[in-house]
From TrEMBL:
The lineage of its organism: Bacteria, Pseudomonadati, Pseudomonadota, Gammaproteobacteria, Alteromonadales. It comes from Alteromonas australica. Pathway: Lipid metabolism; fatty acid beta-oxidation. Its EC number is 4.2.1.17. One of its GO terms (biological process) is fatty acid beta-oxidation. Pfam families: 3HCDH, 3HCDH_N, ECH_1. This is enoyl-CoA hydratase. CDD domains: crotonase-like. SUPFAM superfamilies: 6-phosphogluconate dehydrogenase C-terminal domain-like, ClpP/crotonase, NAD(P)-binding Rossmann-fold domains.
Length: 612
């Protein structure tokens, strides 16, 4: 076989083969992952001219020169140069024009996907006539633009609904969620899922086929009635808007635009939809919501490069101990075994505690099996990483031990002494304390340099933030290794000072105290919580206190008062709440009622008489 390689100094290389197939490879110089940029327009247009002018080319396989990804999306940094909505609209229209041309080429185009194909990367693949992806765990497809306050601007709002159905496409775009290879095949996003070793071979076979005539994607009578009839479509879009507003409270404009643009394309045709898409993209780029979400994205991306201490290489954590089998301990064990992929040894004083911690992982994994996100064999493999003990057997080779016991200083100091006695000299002791200064926990430690704070937030499997709290004697090596460990657990770690309240509780306490003062002033609890949710918080302050634990939430107050004075003093009414045995969700007794058909949804009216 002879190859005719078209030289290029840019991001694309065209290799012509004598079997009628051309391989179009994207490999952006100097970047670990491919991203689409506006300046690629002329280069790709030139490649398409070459393909169009060569009658020997029957099919084209579009692939990535990166070993770990297809196309991660558009380079959103280019949006900073937009001075008006018209500038951003022009960027979207430019991408649409290129992808429209690919869709209408004489040759059959096949996207060979390995690794992430997200945002503009999936839109590029959708413009191709076939899509083949690998069965690798890293392969995923999605349109996450809504998470940046945007919408897919290069045809995604029009092509995905036509490919997989309006409702499923809306769900993906409105949540920004991605799907793995198997699910992508089930939805109809990709045409085949194959091992990486035969990806190009299978893609070439598809490239020699005729362009497909896609059947209507709707499945089931109800879906057909909703998506293929005028009244059905009206009802479907109306319900979508209602459900979206219930979640966003109108604080995010992008979801509404996504629904509008899809509806325009469905009712008025794809060209009208593309025009509406580009214009909506332009408007959204200029919104303050999108600007701030993009800033958060850039900041989060930069944080991934941080390891807490410059120039210190982290040690790998090969075995982890977790002290305490409560909700926090169970959550920590779950993210360690499933995300970090590291064996976890759970210690509790009661066998029931160990069982509860393991049940935490089992329940989450079992749901994933039922939804077919993972196989039962994968669940068993991950559960096998969890073991339990009532003593310290199996702790001698632990690299890090995360303590998640009660907020009691004497108990935590005893845990430090126990770990120093039963583990290696290099073992890191990480306390999940939410209130006690690490300096106090480490006061009697033989190896204080190995002790650090690692504060998670509940529920651990969902909350991304983790505070890494270094005291004066914590070694740089321990800081670096703990930060890296938290990243492996899927967390966004921030290194904070060992001060009262650390970072989160320091800023949260005044917020919670003010909510309590409003309750005592006669403001209904549901009014307070609903107002803050409407403002943009995921939950209200009173509901949050129930979730965290009223006892836990109030234990931080004495430390804050000692450090910052009386302005941090909590309303005395909290003492009555605690005296009544109300700890919140964990003991099904708090500000909210956990009985009846709507547990945790309605205020326990008896709280008002208790507070007087």
């Amino acid at each position: 076989m002879t190859n005719d390689v078209q030289p290029t100094s840019g991001a694309f290389t065209l290799t012509k083969q004598d079997n009628g197939i051309a391989i179009l490879t994207m490999d952006v110089p100097g970047e670990s992952m491919n991203t689409l940029k506006a300046e690629f327009g002329d280069e790709i247009s030139s490649m398409l001219d070459d393909i169009d002018g060569d009658s020997s080319i029957k099919g084209v396989v579009l692939t990535s020169g990166k070993s770990n990804s297809f196309v991660a999306g558009a380079d959103i940094s280019m949006l900073a140069a937009c001075e008006s909505a018209e500038d951003a609209t022009a960027i979207a229209a430019g991408g649409q024009a290129i992808f429209d041309r690919i869709e209408n080429m004489k040759a059959t185009f096949v996207a060979a996907i390995h690794g992430p194909a997200l945002g503009g990367g999936l839109e590029l693949a959708l413009a191709c006539h076939y899509r083949i992806c690998t069965d690798a765990a890293s392969t995923q497809v999605g349109l996450p633009e809504v998470q940046l306050g945007l919408l897919p601007g290069s045809g995604g709002t029009q092509r995905l609904p036509r490919l997989i159905g309006i409702q499923q496409a809306m769900k993906m775009m409105l949540t920004g969620s991605s799907v793995r290879a198997k699910q992508a095949k089930k939805y109809g996003i990709v045409d085949d899922v194959v091992p990486y070793s035969v990806l190009l071979e299978v893609a070439e076979q598809f490239a020699l086929k005729r362009k497909p005539e896609r059947e209507a994607p709707q499945k089931g009578l109800m879906n057909k009635m909703l998506e293929n009839t005028g009244p059905g479509k009206s009802m479907m879009f109306k319900k979508a808007r209602e459900a979206t507003f219930a979640k966003t409270k109108g604080n995010y404009p992008a979801p509404g635009y996504i629904i509008d643009v899809i509806e325009t394309g469905v009712n008025d045709g794809i060209q009208a939809g593309l025009k509406a898409e580009a214009e909506a993209f332009g408007k959204l780029v200029m919104t303050p919501e999108s600007f701030q979400l993009r800033q958060i994205f850039f900041a989060t991306t930069e944080m991934k490069k941080e390891n807490g201490v410059e120039g210190v290489k982290p040690e790998k954590m090969n075995k982890v101990g977790v002290l305490g089998g409560g909700l926090m301990g169970g959550g920590i064990a779950y993210v360690t075994s499933t995300k970090a992929g590291v064996p976890v040894r759970i210690k509790d004083v009661r066998a029931e505690g160990i069982a509860n911690a393991m049940k935490y992982s089992y329940d989450i994994l079992n749901k994933k099996v039922k939804k077919r996100f993972i196989r039962n064999s994968e669940m068993q493999k991950q559960m096998a990483l969890l073991t339990g003990t009532l003593d310290y057997s199996g702790y001698q080779d632990a690299d890090i031990v995360v303590e998640a016991v009660f907020e009691d200083l004497d108990l935590k100091q005893k845990m430090v002494a126990d770990i120093e006695a039963h583990c290696q000299e290099s073992t890191i002791f990480a306390s999940n304390t939410s209130s006690i200064p690490i300096t106090q926990i480490v006061a009697e430690a033989a190896r204080p340099e190995n002790v650090i704070g690692l504060h998670y937030f509940s529920p651990v499997d969902k909350m991304p933030l983790a505070e890494v709290i270094a005291h004066e004697k914590t070694s740089d090596q321990v800081i670096s290794s703990t930060v890296e460990f938290a990243k492996k657990q899927g967390k966004t770690p921030v290194v904070v000072k060992d001060g009262a309240g650390f970072y989160v509780n320091r800023i949260l306490a005044p917020y919670m105290n003010e909510a309590a003062s409003l309750i005592l002033a006669g403001e209904p609890i549901e009014h307070i919580d609903k107002s803050l949710v409407k403002f943009g918080f995921p939950v209200g302050p009173v509901k949050l206190l129930d979730e965290v634990g009223i006892d836990v939430g109030t234990k931080i107050i004495p430390f804050l008062v000692e450090a910052f004075g009386d302005r941090f003093t909590a309303p005395s009414a909290f003492d009555k709440v605690l005296a009544d045995g109300r700890k919140g969700k964990k003991n099904k007794k708090g500000f909210y009622s956990y009985e009846g058909k709507k547990p945790g949804k309605e205020v326990d009216e008896s709280i008002y008489s208790l507070l007087g």
